[in-house]
Amino acid sequence: MSDNRTGLQGPAPDERPHPDGRRNAQGIRIDPEAESEHEPRRAVFSAIVEDEPGVLSRVAGLAARRQFNIESLTVGPTTVDGHSRITMVVEEPEPGIDQIEKQLAKLKPVISVGELDDDAVRTELVLLKVRGEDPDKVHAVTEMYDGRTLDAGSETITVQLTGDERKIDDAVDAFRRFGIIEIARTGQTALAHGSKKTVPGEEPGTSGEPTKPNTNTQ
Amino acid sequence: MSERTAATTDPDATDADDDAAQTPTEVTSGSTAVVRALENAGVETAFGVQGGAIMPIYDALYHSDIRHVTMAHEQGAAHAADAYGVVRGNPGVCLATSGPGATNLVTGIADANMDSDAVLALTGQVPSDMVGSDAFQETDTTGVTAPITKHNYFASSPDTVGDTVGEAFALAAEGRPGPTLVDLPKDVSLNETDTEPGPAQPPETCRARTDPADSQVEAAARAIERAEKPLLLFGGGVVKADATEVARQFATEHRIPVVTTMPGIGAMPEDHELCLSWAGMHGTGYANMAITHTDCLIAVGTRFDDRLTGGIDTFAPEAEVVHIDIDPAEISKNVHADYPVVGDAGRAIERVDAELDEGPDAREWVDQCLAWKDEYPMDYAAPDNEPLKPQFVVEALDEATPDETIVTSGVGQHQMWAAQYWTFTEPRRWVSSHGLGTMGYGLPAAIGARVAADDDETVVCVDGDASFLMTIQELSVAVRENLDITVAILNNEYIGMVRQWQDAFFEGRRMAAGYDWCPQFDKLAEAFGARGWTVDSYEEVPDVIEEALAYDGPSVIDFHVDPAENVYPMVSSGGANGKFALSEDQL
């Protein structure tokens, strides 16, 4: 069976012409002399979802299996029956942020999803439980950060604070001197500024009207 | 044999289906609503395995005209449904009971998910009031399968379960195809309802955009016009969108060379002058040269899998990328798309074609691609002093079978040789496990393909010894159903691709790679009730193939091939496509 079979022929790898071009890790063509990488940035997504069992685990599972770095995830009902809003803060390089939005849009319970602009209104709520030995000073710091005392006893004081992430971080630092016993943060929730739509298809000011599904056309 | 089993295997019964209109199942319960929804969706065949929690669905199937093929293992049911869908072009359906039945489907569902194959899986579940109690044969099936389905459903009421099944079926086929699953608690199936399911509709939140945006079409057309070295890359999406004719027309009209992905095999006839066959790890040298040097890669229906791209840094490094895909999430996922076009493959190609003022002038480039075909021909050496070569067996099978033969395969060296040395000229004829790489896919896939195909079509399964052993029990199904399938085992007594990698990258330490303990496959085939042969020499090959093909039923040929033969060309994992090795010393 030797006939005229010769096996694979042709120049060896090093004898072939090879182009100089290169792509970076995101598959974008780059100047090989000046390698550039995208810095991670923080993005806030808002999604209107069908309020069905397992929707949160679908969103969380998607992020986990695609290795998206979630900073926080909040969910709550809207004024439309059967619809909830999920707010998700992520930190990723640019192409990854686009991927998250497109992958979220593919989930069946996701009706519409969009990234919020920088001017969006954002806030977070934190509950702080500190030692109760110095109630006056705790009260003063709470006032300074426009907080409220929810529970005060001889051993512990629990306060509530709201605000953007920086304010909360600062406040937590300020409370450290009293000895923080426990802390619970909700993560950010957010809405678009003014009359902008928070997610595509949403009609602000007409609450009660269901949000229309949005076809993601890239 | 039960009355029902006898009826399904009676050829007169299936013939009657063609003439007489189906009698739709009367809806009296959740399970009859499920079966009615399947009938409404046009389902003719389902593959599955019985079990406690799915019994009500099977009971409803008893009176239905839907043909049920009992498989030996649920994994086989999922693969058979997958292959059935590939050949037919509409979703395949598989059934399994709760717990182990459902988990046995998982490999097949994951396989369908990776290859974007439309499959509807129906699983039994413990009764609703026992869910969460760790009941007998309870598994959180929707939890387990969420990452590997487009979407899955937990049926909550007999009144809505029919619509849910219809929606799941439609969703499997909508846009980019994929698997869906409906988990059916036993009480939902058993409880009474007379609510008939409506027409099968995909969910509103999952409707795909089919007609691309004007701006995207225009930008893509301008990029193609100015290209000097344009190259078309046809992925599995071209086949799934039934866009083969439009795609071929576009390539030939503008004289643009074509490479395919493995799932895209058959989108362009491999004997066409402009077809460079498939690119990637074991693709042809000329396809990999073309993809390395193109300045405009027009990719249609592909997700740029790593086995195609090799290292991203060196993938099509000179090319502006036009990426046509129906799934926006594939755009710039792995390879940045300079010109994305989101829409149906056929429609998008038509729109881009209409937008082109004139095609690219690429005569020199075409000549270069054709020169690469001569420079790096696909060939294997077959000296007299070496054992039978597996590539020869593939060529002999291709030679002996009609042009439009359906070929299924397992995963490994035999799969690569089948893809390399079989000349495919039509879509939906190469049925394999690409993305997941599931050994054992070949035989159950051949069963699904055989059931899906017309009687006058030929179905061949090219398998490996280790792959065949993984789902060999399905041979009993092929015998019971008298399915005309020819299985060709390229038996090298190794899990061969692993052995090849051990020799190349692990200094020849062949840990757990030897399969000389495999049973005698010809005798085993006979024990199942199939025909079996063993072939050791070139002389026997043509006659045994002829005999096996002539046998009207399942046949198994155990080809004892050269255990030392390796698959080349090869792009090393993460390496540059243009640096494909022609032999181990070039790796």
Looking at this protein, list some descriptive labels.
A: 218 residues, alpha+beta, Alpha-Beta Plaits, five-stranded antiparallel β-sheet, B: 587 residues, alpha/beta, Rossmann fold, 3 domains, six-stranded parallel β-sheet, 24 helices
Describe the structure.
The complex is a heterodimer of chains A (218) and B (587). The N and C termini of chain A lie far apart (56 Å). Chain A is built from four helices and eleven strands. The model of chain A has no long low-confidence stretch (mean pLDDT 89). Chain A has helices spanning 55-65, 94-106, 135-144, 165-175; strands at residues 22-23, 29-30, 40-50, 70-77, 83-93, 110-115, 121-131, 148-152, 156-163, 180-185, 189-191. Chain A is 21% helix and 33% strand. Chain A is elongated and about 95 Å long. By secondary structure, chain A is of the alpha+beta class. In chain A, strands 7, 8, 9, 10 and 11 form a five-stranded antiparallel sheet that branches. Chain B is of the alpha/beta class. Chain B has three domains: 3-206, Rossmann fold; 214-375, TPP-binding domain (Rossmann fold, 3-Layer(aba) Sandwich); 390-568, Thiamin diphosphate (ThDP)-binding fold, Pyr/PP domains (Rossmann fold, 3-Layer(aba) Sandwich), CATH 3.40.50.970. Helices cover 38% and strands 15% of the residues of chain B. The longest helix of chain B has 15 residues, at 74-88. The N and C termini of chain B lie far apart (56 Å). Classes of the chains: A alpha+beta (218), B alpha/beta (587). The interface between A and B is large, with 50 and 62 residues.
In short:
The complex is a heterodimer of chains A (218) and B (587). By secondary structure, chain A is of the alpha+beta class.
